[in-house]
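Hey team,

Filing this mostly as a record. A colleague (T.K.) asked me to run one chain through the structure pipeline before their review meeting, and I want the input and output archived in the tracker in case anyone asks later how it was produced. No errors, nothing strange. Just documentation.

Input sequence:
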Amino acid sequence: MAEAVAKAKKQKAPRNLKPESMNKKVKLTAADHVFNICVNIFMILTLIVIFIPLWSTFALSFRSNTYLHSQFRGMFEVWTWVPDAYKALLGNAGFIDAFISSFMILIGGVVCALILTIPMAYVLSVHTLPGRKWINILIMIPYVFNVGMIPAYLLVKGIGLIGHIPAVFLPGAISTYNCIIMKQFFEGIPNDLKESARIDGCNEIQILFKIMLPLSKAIIMTVGLFYAVSFWNDFFHAMLYLSGTPVKIFGWNMIDSNYPLPILLRNILMASGMNEYVEVNAFGNAPVQAIKAASVFMSAIPMIIAYPFIQKYFTKGTLAGAVKG
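Output structure:
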């Protein structure tokens, strides 16, 4: 037996041996070069179109009250920039309360959504589930047909969530689209792993937590980011269900108003457009346009920080269930 193994090792090809086709360089034709040049030009133009408005808004957020030149000139005169708008925002209690409220909606919404979406997606991925076809149909009905604003409001009011932060994320805690993506990912995991676990005596809950979740980091991070962006930018539900009441924890006022950042930004825009005394007058002497631009960038900070860490999971998480081997 030992001699057979040794002989097999001698006959085994070296690992670094590559086929001849891999050592050959592909020669690009003139059409290929023209195509690559066109693609590069298109990507550069796209980058410019995206970068110029962002840089213009960023430069506007550092505008001072005494600056009298054009916006185009202000984009390049960095020496005239002042952080008055950012100081006014960070020193304003209303902005801090709105930021905390948005952060509470973000954390509560993502945690609640993942807790509900993961078991739902796993159950739908089990092909032996009785009535699986009808459950899929029931899940697709609200995805195709919206129940409407008034029934949703009456439901939220009936369970006593009006004026409370959970009213913003509980009605949309399970997204049908995200659930389908996660279900496809679970179906792409080899069924032999689950069958082996069942033979070893694991139930479905143990399979989910000990096998499926450790292998599903990519889809969990991807779907979690989808939920995070949705809850962080949610304006309509906050306007519909929240009333600006204080948030109390054990009788202590954590924040004086539960309005999130989108509501505050809307009030700033209304104040500057209608020249009324709303939130914008509470930010000191900073220019109105600078406050609006600074508010946009401050509200985007959490997503800007989170995206680079989760970007590597995007392609793997969304496409892993599309191809089955």
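Quick notes for T.K.: The longest helix spans residues 93-125. The two ends are 35 Å apart (CA to CA).
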